[in-house]
Amino acid sequence: MANEIITTQDVESRVIEIRGQKVLLDCDVAALYGVKTKEINQAVKNNPEKFPEGYLIEVDIFEKEEVVKNFDHLKKLKFSQFLPTAFTERGLYMLATILKSKQAVQTTIAIIDTFAMVRDMARTMESLQNETDGGDKQKDLLQRSGELMAEVIGQNLTTKAIETEIELNLAVVKIKHKVIRKDKE
Q1: Which helix (H) or strand (E) holds 164?
Q2: Does residue 158 or residue 101 have the better pLDDT?
Q3: What is the Cα–Cα distance from 151 to 173, expressed in whole angstroms?
């Protein structure tokens, strides 16, 4: 990915969950920043005060085997003698203070935007679960969740139309939200 424009979609496709936290593994961070994994880990080693508890997760052998099994893009880790380091959102922010290249700045912006959208999407979905009256607030939340999903999933597309349909049938609530996308011209 060296010298490519990094999008939130590039970042989102690499976000995984370990120990209940959304993280990026060191090899994925390196790929996004256009450097070697060794350089990412060296930056951490040289700046231990910037990575207190909660900023990094030292992945154990069982977690490594699990991510190799579940994420195709991490298959190369199977043969690595090293256990990966997982960066939490806070760890990624701190790493951004160390790496200074043009690509690092652009990648950091994409990472921050992605984690912010994921948080926003989670809050919107949680609020949507609590709204059961089928009113305007529920419609607004549905539209917002659709916009967030469309932004994360289809950044190279433009929205052609958005349609929300809510059907209430005594004890059964059916919600349908459709975002129609087309390629940017």
Answers
A1: strand 157-169
A2: 101
A3: 26
Give CA–CA dist 118/122, Å, rounded.
6
Show the DSSP H helices in 24-135 as ranges: 26-33, 37-46, 61-70, 89-98, 102-130
Residue 183 has pLDDT above 60, yes or no: no
CA distance 51 to 34: 21
176 vs 185: CA distance, rounded Å: 28
Residue with tokens 């992605």: 114
The secondary structure of 165-181 as a DSSP string is: EEEEETTEEEEEEEEEE
Q: Which residues of 63-94 are buried (b: 16+ CB within 10 A; e: fewer)?
A: bbeebbeeeeebeebeeeeeebbbbbbebbbb
Segment 86-111 mean pLDDT = 79
Output the pLDDT for position 51. 94
Q: Dihedral sign, CA of 13, 19, 23, 27?
A: negative
The residues near 30 (Cβ < 8 Å, ≥ 6 apart) are: 36, 37, 39, 40
Of 99, 124, 116, nearest to 152 (Cα)?
116
